[in-house]
Structures are given as C-alpha cells and as structure tokens.
Fold each of these.
Amino acid sequence: MAYEEVINELNLKDTELRLGLPGTDEQAEVSCVKSNKRQFHQSNDEHNLKEEYPPPPAKTQIVGWPPVRSNRKNNNKSVSYVKVSMDGAPYLRKIDLKMYKNYHELLKALENMFKFTIGEYSEREGYKGSGFVPTYEDKDGDWMLVGDVPWDMFSSSCQKLRIMKRSEAPAF
Amino acid sequence: MNYFPDEVIEHIFDFISSHKDRNSISLVSKSWHKIERCSRKRVFIGNCYAINPERLIERFPSLRSLTLKGKPHFADFNLVPHEWGGFVHPWIVALAKARVGLQELRLKRMVVSDESLELLSRSFASFKSLVLVSCEGFTTDGLASVAANCRHLRELDLQENEIEDHRGQWLNCFPESSTALTSLNFSCLKGETNLAALERLVARSPNLESLKVNRAVPLDALTRLMSCAPQLVDLGVGSYENEPDQESFMKLMAAIKKCTELRSLSGFSEVAPLCLSAFYPICQNLTSLNLSYAAEIQGNHLIRFIQFCKRLQRLWILDSIGDKGLEVGASTCKELQELRVFPSDLHDEEDNDTAVTEIGLVAISAGCPKLHSILYFCKQMTNAALITVAKNCPNFIRFRLCILEPNKPDHTTSQSLDEGFGAIVQACKGLRRLSVSGLLTDKVFLYIGMYAEQLEMLSIAFAGDTDKGMLYVLNGCKKMRKLEIRDSPFGNAALLADVDKYRTMRSLWMSSCEVTLGGCKRLARNAPWLNVEIINENENNDLMERNEEDEREKVDRLYLYRTVVGARKDAPPCVTIL
C-alpha cells in the first residue's frame, strides 16, 4: 500500500521520542510518549485505517441520497463510536459500543486494547482488585462508574469512556 | 343497459368505486358519461396542476371526497425547492364558493395554510375526514380551527407533515359534544400536548379505533389512554427512552392486555427494551408493525418481539434487525405481505456488519409466500440473490431496492446488477412499481422495457449508459405513469423521441441528467399540452433572457406533466415554465 511507503520514506524513527538510550531499538511501551501517531496506526488492524482514510466524500455529500425522508434522517442517532481514554496513555482509542452485547464483552475488549486488567465489579464497592476503574460520561455530562445501570441504558447514554487510575478515583 | 332509467344505472354505478373503473365507464357513451359524472362522489387527482378546481366542480357536482397530490415524489428527498408550489388554498376557495358538500379531503405533498384550514372548517357543514400526508405550511392554530368548527369530524390523520407547533390548546378545541372521532393521528407534532384534554377527548370517543400520539406523550399518559380506549385497533405510541419502574410497567402491561382488538402498532421513536416487552401479550394479534423509528434498539430485542408476531402482514423495520432477524421473520411471519427495511446508519460512520444484506432479502422471499411489496435498503447485493428472490416471489407488485452506495456492483462478481433486476421484471408479471439501484447499464432498461408490462412507476438513480436506456423504457412500458430519474446519462434524444408518450403519463422528472435547455424548449414547443418546468436555484434565474448559446446548457432539474389547464400562475422565480 502506498501508505506504508510514505511512512517508510519519512524515516520517522529519527524523530521518535523514546525512553532509553539513543541507538537502542526496543518496542516502546504504551505509557511512553510517542510523537508519532502514525506508527501506532500502522500496527493496527484495518478498522482504524478506514478511519484514517475515509470512503470517498461522494457518499455523504450527494443531495437527497440515500432516498430517505428527512424525518427519518433526524431520528437516526448516527454513531455509537465513543472515545476511550486511559490515564497515562498518550493517545485515545475509539470503540463501537454496538459491537458489544454486555459489560463483559466491553471490559474484555478494553482490557485487550490497553493491556491491563479491570477488577471485579460489585455494586457495593465498584471495581476491586486492580489499579484501574472504568468510568464514562453520560448524556448529562456526569462521570459515572461503568456497570451500575443495565447495558442498554449504558450503551445509549455513554458519550465517552475513561479508564481512571485508582489513585485518581478515590471515591470508587 | 341503455334501456334502464338513469336512476337504475346510477345505482349500478354506485357499486363501482375504483377510480380507474369509473373513468372507464365515463368513456362508454355520452349518457353514461353524464350519469357517471353527476353521481361521482370520490375523485382522485394525482397532480393538482393537471386540472383546476373550477373544471373539477363543473364536471362532478356531487363531489364528496377529494384526493389531491402536489409536489413530485423527489420532493421527499429535498430535490424540490421549498416554494415550488402545490397550494391547496385555491381548491378550498373554489369548493366553498360552489357550495360543494365536501366531506373528505386527502392531501399529499401540498402546501396548506392555517387560512386554508380555517376556511375549510367553516365551509363544509358535513365535513368528516381530513388526511394530510407530507404536507407543510400550517400550524397547530389551523388544527384548532378544524377541531373547533368541524362538528362531524371523524378523522384527523396527520402523517409526516411539517407542522409548526405553537404548543397551544388545539386539543382543547374539540367541543365536549364531539364524540364521533374514529381516527386521530398527531404523531408528527413535535411539541407537548395538553394531556388532560387528550384523555378527555379519548374518553368521550367510544368509536375511536385509531390513535397515534406524538413523542411527548409519556408512558403513564399512554397507559391511561389505553385504559379508556380498549377498543383501539391501531395505536401509535410516543417516545420511551427510559426503562419504566416496576409499577408503571405493570400498569402498562395491564392496559395493553385489555386491548384485544389491537392490530396495528407504530411510533416508538425511542423505546427502552423493557417498554417494548410490555407489548408481548398482544403481538400475536398484530397485522401491522412499524418499529422503523426506533433507532437505538438493538437487533436482538427486535428479533424477540417479532418472534411473537405470527399474524403480521405489514412490517416496517430498521436494518439493524440484520439478516438473522429477517430469517426469524421469514420463519415466523408467514402472512407477511409488505416489508420495509430502512437504513439506520445514514452517515456510514460505522463498520456495521450487522445490517441486512442480500442474505436477509433471500430469506424473507423464501419464507413469506404472500410477500408482494418490498422496500429494502442495504449496503450490498448480488445478481444471484435477486434471481433467487424472483424465483421465490413472482407476485411482487412493488419492488424497491436501494443499495446505499451509488453504482455499487454485485459484490461477489463485480458485475452490474442488470441480470438480477432483469430476473425480477421477468418473473413478476404484475409488477407496478420498481426502484433500481447499484451498478446498472442500459441492459437493465432493455429488460424493463421488454418484460415490465404492468409497470406504472419507475425510479432510476445513477444508472444507465446512453439514451438507449431511457428509450427502452419509454417504448416498452405501455402502462408507465410516473418516471423519475436522477444522475443518469439520458439526454435530449431520449426526451424528444416520442413526445406523444407523455400524453399517457402523469409526469416525468429528470435531474442531473444530460438534457439541455434547448431540448426542453423544443419539447415544450412540440407539446403545448405539457407543462415543462425547469427548476433552477442558481442566482441567475431568468432563463428566458439568456441568449441562444445557452441552449446547450444542461438543465439541472426538469419536471414535466400533462395538463388541460396550461401553465400554472403560481410558480416561484426558481421555476421556469417553457
């Protein structure tokens, strides 16, 4: 793909900030600052590449297409992609909430994405057993603990996700 | 038959209600023409500019029920300027002046004003039924006049109109003596209603069969409404985003259980899954279900609901139901006649693999032998699937397929979808309405012209290669009435080949095609019985003042229609009638 040729040509490694002495070639960890978002994209699946290179504009700019009445267009909530941030991570991710049917699947996916473990949820004590707490911003702008409300209610009101470090979330 | 006295013939004609049949009767002889026209009660006018109200009244003095349509179909998709026309006011003025005993008025895509509604409400003492579909230009004040003054009002049905909601007390305007309501639909109103007035109105309307409320009617109000109207056959509910608490849920379920006559359910602009499940007890009675506005609800909830709906004949749903959901529908809804699957992801921002594909379409065609009408939005299609669908369902009367990406080919073979649509028109001998999409060459139109003998309405977008395509259709489809084309390479040669063809059609729409101003002018010269309208929303609107070389300029939007009353006088500046 032309995309990768461009990346290689730019020789981005020279401008990359890493922990460690110059000349060493370790894989930087998630928590390190990387100046180059593109390298991150390179190692990921096609899913994100499509976001980087969206389909031709024609699709979204044709007047009166698709042939759907405007009252239907207004009704449709367009996206269920939400941003996910993790304390200490240099860049955010985006996930499609509609891909998950319940909290279990969502939390597993987050664990995989950010390489950490979430503790056990209990209504009384929130998440125990790890250094991280999943929270989300709801339609009212409040930050809530993930898991309190039924999944459907959560997935329709969740605007943003934030995986907080326990040290920053004393209330939970 | 001519030996019978007129009253007997008239009585016989009373049994003939279809417009087509009555039109045919009137052509038999002078005496039949006279008897027919003097006794005709219901008139349908597909294009309000084809005739004028004076001539209508002159011909049909006993008119009781009038249906009028205004803007062309593509107005639904913002392709027609707001001010284009289709005003009902002159009609109401003329009918009032002639003291026609109007009882029923049905309007589609027309501009209605509060003034019109006020005049309507005061001019026809026996007025019973007002049905407005996709209309605009009025407010709840106009509704208040109708409620207040139409003493015998039975039906007020507002479908998908743009109504300015003054949040007034229009529901309060129904007098206490008004108890004849059979149908009330205000689902398209955006604002809050006076719930107390609504409940009182419903409580004193024992004949109310159809009630469709708007999104602002909360769950407890809905419960109360259903409790005092258990005779309801057709119910449209509001918006229920939040899960109900235990008590509300139990009350709702109890009220629903009492509605044993309920056959049709709609509304649900938002619905929490628990709310939806309250309707399970009456699912098995439903013949019509519209969940196509419930954008947030996940496929699995929809599937669970549909599993109970064994008697469903009409289903309108979102594509989030998925192929799996349609497979469930295919095995459950054996009585299904009409299916509409609308797109839920209009901005294509989701990599959504759960939306329907050709698989769902094939499944539903295989499982539902009575299916005759379909509108299907999807992201991909194959010829093989369409060929299978054609084999499974030769009874289609309406087949509308919209592949969301223009020019998209068969995703397994990368070929055009000519063969697939060709199979549909060949197998479905009774096909009256067709919408095509995806990658299509002139060949599909060859098939359509050859096989679609009953086709009356055809919608084309981003299809075809040359004028031949359009010519195949114009030459082949003898029953064509409405042809609408956008973004296709058809030009003057096709437009002008057979001018007399347009005598047999109601209208032709062409936008972003290859026809030029010169071609349109020539058409207008050769066919004075046509109104040839050029719609142009650019700054320099005065086309007639342009010099000759602009005749080669392509026309952005062309709308032509036969008429017996010449050019209309109410066209806005952006419309030029040649």
Amino acid sequence: MAMLKKCENLEFGLVRSTSFGRKRVCLPNIEDLDFISTTPKKKICRQNSFSSFVKSPLEALPQDILIRIVCGVDHDDLKRLFHVSKPIREATLVAKRWHFEYSTPRKTVGFKNATDLENLSESTDAEVPNAPRQSRFPRSRLSRKKLAEISVALFTSDGEENWPQRELFMQMDTEI
Amino acid sequence: MSSTKLLTLKTSDGEEFKLDEAVAVKSQAIKNMVEDDCVSNAIPLPNVDSKTMTKVIEYWKKHSEEGVSKDQLNDFDKGFLEVHHSVLYDLLLAANYLNDKELVDVICQEVADRIKGKTPEEIRKEFDIKNDFTPEEEEKIRQENAWAFD
C-alpha cells in the first residue's frame, strides 16, 4: 500500500506495482503511456544563433545548385572551400563524394622560365599527377620463370629427362 | 508559310512576354507544358520577375540564332555573365525553375570560376559569407583536411 502511494506521487495516476524478485517496479497505466513515452524535446542550442539566420545569397541557393557550382571548381579549391562556412562545407563534401572522387586533378606546374609557358598550353592534359600508368598492351604479370615455378605439367612431353620419376621407375625395373 | 506559334509567358510582376515556341522550349518546363497541351492561355511563371525573364529570353534568342559561330556565342556568354552576383543568382534560380540545364550549367561554371584560386577569406569577402566556424571547429577541419586531401 505504501508503495502504491509512492507511485502516485510520481504523478502517474493509477499505477500497478509488480515485484520482480526483490525489485519493485511501478508500472504506469496504459493511458498514461503516451505521456511517458514522449520525452521532452531537446533544446538545440546554437552558439551563434544570429548568424545562422543571416545567410549570404550564395548560401541561400538550393543545395543542389550549390553542389553543382562546387563541382565546377578545381580540386585544389575544395580544401579552401571547406574553411569558408558550414553550408559551403556540406555542399563541398557532397560534391567531393559525387564528382571529384571520379575525376583526375589537373597538373599544376611551377614555371621555370618563360619558354615553359608556351609549351604548357600545348600539353596541359598530357601528363597528370598520380594518374595510374596505362600501357597499350596489357602486361602479363607472370614471367616465364615464375610460371615454371608454380606450374605442374600434367601431360607427358618429349623431353624425358624432365621426368626423374620415370627414370627411377625404369631403374627399379632393371633391378628386379 | 511556316507556322511559328507564339507563346505568352507571364512573370511574377504581371508582365507578359511573347515568344516563339521554338525558342521557349529551351525550357524543359515549358516544353512539357506544350506537349501536354496546356498553353492556350499565358503560361504563369510566379518564380521569375520580368527583369530576369528579359535576360533569359535574350540568352535563348542568341542561342537559337542561325549562323552564329561558337566563338561568337562564347563572346556573348562572357558579356552576358559579366554581371553582379545578385543578378547571377536570380538568373540561376530562374533557369533552375524553368529547367534549362544548359543555362544552369553555364551560370554555375561562371560562379565556380569566381571561386577558383581564392583563399577562404577572399571567398567570404567576394560572396558576403559569414564565417560560422568556431576556432575549435576550424582547427578540427584543418586536421581532417590534412589526411583527406594529401
């Protein structure tokens, strides 16, 4: 009885109490379940609450357009865009995942002298940093030597000297 | 005699623009309406104002002209896009609403070109963006970037 009273004090209305061994648990009425299951919503505190309302026109654009814009910059600009602001950073992350991870960065060259500048324009896309080298014909990864080590001939060949076992067999024959 | 059907487009501020259907269908949204045969009256464009619509139509007309070389078009585009950011954003939103992929791509690239090569501070200054990172968050990003991009 005393326990019932205790449960009532918790403002659950009519409660049933059950005991699991030594522990006594107050169970609320079914009607009051809704009240209990809805926990108070967490208040999201923002440090700079005012700045979040004032968005620049660029950030106010729909995110898919912002992502398209970011897809148009160079790889190197991505690093810098990360530091600009939170909405820009989010768009940059998405653009990086969708677009930049499937494209090769352009080569940036340090100019040695003026003549290099002229040659650069002709060969901007010729070499690309860290791009995997591709040979015209696929190189076989197995050399002949390796092949010999790992392969086993299953059928007889002309050269009988390659078959020490056969020799042994023949020797045994002669002995008998 | 060629039948050039004229379409009427009505902007958010009540102005009406008459345009050849062949030009107007650069907008996928308008093209869909033409195909669905619901263009008997003026086509309402509540998300586009007359100032922006004038510019969009100027672009469409130039890119529909016959006998214009690629270089001439490039020169036109350059001049067309040499406007303030706010005009570009309005154009971009209008092109997006009208679903003109070519125009959206062209404007996005122009904005991207304005971002290229700039430091974060320069980008913020150019586009009037406020830095909403705390010093701790900035440091965290710098550390994350170290392995992400090298």
